[in-house]
Write a structure and sequence with these properties.
Helix content: under 10%
Radius of gyration: 13 Å
Number of helices: 1
CATH topology: Jelly Rolls
Order of helices and strands: EEEEEEH
Largest sheet: 3 strands, antiparallel
Structural class: mainly beta
Number of domains: 1
Number of strands: 6
Shape: globular
Distance between the termini: 32 Å
Length: 77
Amino acid sequence: MHHKNDESFYIVSGALELLNGDETLLAEVGDLVFVPRGTRHRFKNIGDTDAHVLILMTPGGPEALFVEAGDGGGGGD
């Protein structure tokens, strides 16, 4: 839960199961899911392949969270 930021997830490839408050939904390629600040949420890759997602936080600022929590893979070179 983020108290100062809204978060949006745009699915570029793959599929995610997203918890948005009390609602669990399937987000697939082209879907945009908006999570208002103060809303409990989580996401989980439910596919057999990697999921690629653009995550937008407004206002910006907590980007370091993803660097710290990431797996350090660096992408698909």
